[in-house]
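Folds abound. Consider this:
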Amino acid sequence: MKYLFFTNTPAHVHLYRNAVEELEERGHETLLLARDYGCTLDLLDYYDLPHVVYGELATSKYSLARQLPRHYLTIVRETREYDPDKIFGVGAYAAHAGAVTDTPVVLITDSENTHLDHAISRPFADAYLTPHTFDKDLGEKHHVFRGFKECAYLHPDEYEPRGDIRDRLGVGPDEEFAVVRLNAFGSHHDVGHDGFTPAKRRELVETLADETTVFVSDEGGTMDFSALPARPFDLHPALLHDALSEASLLVADTQTMVTEAALLGTPAIRSNSFVGDDDMGNFAELEREGLIYNLREFDAVAETATRLLADEGVADEWARKREAFLADKVNLTDLVVSVATDSTALRSLPTKRTHERMVREASV
């Protein structure tokens, strides 16, 4: 069979890369339609994944609106030419590609607040797969799995850390370091949201540098390191998870990497304007489990970071929390492959409505 995967961001490459490899090993044909955004193409090349670029997207907030018509023209042409048996993606691009080619579409999403994307995707999706924490009902075709989308590549059955990452980073075997991840806020789901200001970014790095070595991963590429007590993370982006697994702390105003840190057992502090009463369900659960901190105010971020770096028992504590948390989580790659190859696989997953009823009954 022929499978088409949409990789609009670097996170989508990680989401589907292991499933693509497994499907090809089983003799199926795969193709990824990719957007030139951030390090998406670097990751596709690194993992040697078959792909076609349908367009580009800068990290500015208005780039998508300018590029959208051209994106769709290329997507429709490439999808028709490839003629897949099933399409996987995360939202509108995949859903509409399926609609114009009469191809079944499976969407995997974890963002409750992308309301417009849900509205224009849902009529054309044959199935939605979301984490069990997803706090929104997307209808009768909405199925729930126990875990997060990052379980496709950071589940213990999928992830094996490199042994040489400290050498590559230039840090000693016992040297502690922190990672700071800064978001460009250029995707459609980032419109109207923000994170650390330039001044707070500098203050954050200086505060952390008083305690430990600091590496900065700046998605927008705008940070000036000339007078900053930090090093840029300048290894290949495919090695970022390995660095994160060895780090003592992550501080970020982005989203995905915070969940990744939690699944790797690295303490993480998340601070952006998404944090609040309407926050995404996965971050709320990770905070309840004691794996991350969701903090809106900068002073609380700096105070919590300093406290975590000074606590010698944090590494062992987080390792125990990670092991307990992942004990009942699915390997999402296995699930994607099953859904791709077995037409009955979705029957084993509860719908969102069934899952909510089960939770209510269990709490009585």
User: Anything to note?
Assistant: Residues 185-193 have pLDDT under 50 and may be disordered. The first strand starts at residue 2 and ends at 7.
